[in-house]
Design brief:
about 200 residues, mainly alpha, 14 helices
Length: about 200
């Protein structure tokens, strides 16, 4: 899953939020430099990734991606699942997407100390560009793909990738809507003591 999904699944608690985002910005042994409380969020992030990657519905989504982009199919699905989550946010969460983004940004800004340096550098960019909210529009999806294309050695056509994804849009959205409640159920124990961003109807 991508940033938005990890954060909305997180308990509503500062260190869990920080850890759920920090996991993608750590390398190897650097994790031991992070506080134990933030490491709880990192562990949750890793659990979510493992559960997601092994789930049949997610594998089905990856299989829908054109074979030309097969090596990037997991990345594409992660980003598009965040798009569907952002689009459906008020149906899923007990807070609006605008309020959620503001809460997350403020929480991260206040707790930069102790986070991985790469994440400390990324957070101001995320806030300035309102990255989490941008997933709601397809333009935000394309921007995410553009950024990925800039970081990797083997470039791909973002235009053709978007054409492929638009052609399977409805099928991917159907996969997501079936999968996300399974992920909510699988992560419920993490939220038991700290509260949740999710609607009670989704977790009961």
């Amino acid at each position: 899953m991508n940033f938005l999904a990890h954060l909305v699944l997180s308990p509503r608690e500062t260190d869990f939020i920080s850890g759920n985002l920090a996991a993608d910005f750590l390398r190897g042994s650097n994790r031991k430099l992070i506080s134990a409380r933030v490491q709880n969020g990192i562990s949750m992030h890793q659990f979510v990734d493992k559960f997601t990657d092994s789930h049949l519905l997610v594998k089905t989504s990856k299989g829908r991606i054109n074979s030309h982009f097969r090596l990037l199919s997991g990345v594409f699905v992660d980003i598009f699942y965040d798009h569907f989550l952002a689009k459906d946010f008020e149906r899923i969460a007990n807070i609006s997407l605008e309020e959620f983004c503001r809460y997350i940004y403020e929480t991260l800004e206040k707790n930069l100390v102790g986070l991985p340096p790469r994440l400390q550098q990324f957070i101001p960019i995320m806030i300035r560009e309102n990255t989490l909210f941008s997933y709601r529009k397809l333009e935000g999806v394309q921007t995410s793909l553009d950024r990925i294309n800039q970081r990797i050695n083997k470039k791909f056509s973002v235009r053709l990738a978007m054409v492929n994804l638009k052609n399977i849009y409805d099928s991917l959205e159907n996969d997501f809507r079936k999968f996300f409640p399974c992920l909510v159920d699988a992560t419920e124990s993490y939220r038991n003591d700290y509260g949740t961003f999710l609607l009670s109807s989704l977790i009961n």
